[in-house]
Amino acid sequence: MTLQDTVLMQLRDLILSGEFSPGHRLAEQQLAERLGASRTPVRTALVTLEQEGLVETNETGKFMVRQFTAQEVIDAIAVRGHLEGMAARLVAEHGISRQLQGELQACLDEGDRLLKADPLTLASYAAYATMNDRFHALILQACGNRALQRAVELNDKLPFAPASAMLPMQGTVALDRDWMLYAHRQHHLLFAAMRDGQSARAQALASEHTEVAQMNMRLALERRSESVQVMPAMRLVVG
What we know:
- The protein is mostly helical and 239 residues long.
- The protein contains ten helices and two strands; from the N terminus they run αααββααααααα.
- The relative contact order is 0.16.
- The C terminus is likely disordered.
- GO terms for molecular function: DNA binding; DNA-binding transcription factor activity.
- InterPro entries: GntR_C, TF_FadR/GntR_C, Tscrpt_reg_HTH_GntR, WH-like_DNA-bd_sf, WH_DNA-bd_sf.
């Protein structure tokens, strides 16, 4: 985990929560001061968010929050579920190498260790997101289907489509932590299915795994709605 990972996670959270509304200019220096970081990790995170479709640049090259709808996010997550399901099925059919087993098991062990913390800290949350990205990337890389890999890369350019983009945004909330524990349990089940060559089960588990992201989206919208009621001047398009 790096400072950039933490900054990226915090900026995603601020956008999803409605702290920054569509069209809001994201000034690097102000963000750096707010997040307690230098401008370099902030700028790198903004570039990543631009690639994910959450921010855009105006005619002067300044970063601004992009307008998106809840339906865009839901659709992108659903597509990712189908694509990753296919990837998991292919891995199960091809068989997992000893090296891949070791790498996936290391991810599982790291997730288990991080989720023992209660409440989760910002650092452990960011570290879990890094682990989660690696777990999903390993499966995609091992599927051997370049067209499928490109499809995932393209889908990841849509708002909150990447694997860790819709992890719970408030790790200290009990319900969020329960969902993270559930999601990581799915990681264990998915690994076992691929290892044992259960291709249909692996595909189903990978597809169902996105239900956590869908739930997190609904929770985030509920929290944003509550925030908007408290601060009616804050506006964010949600559908």
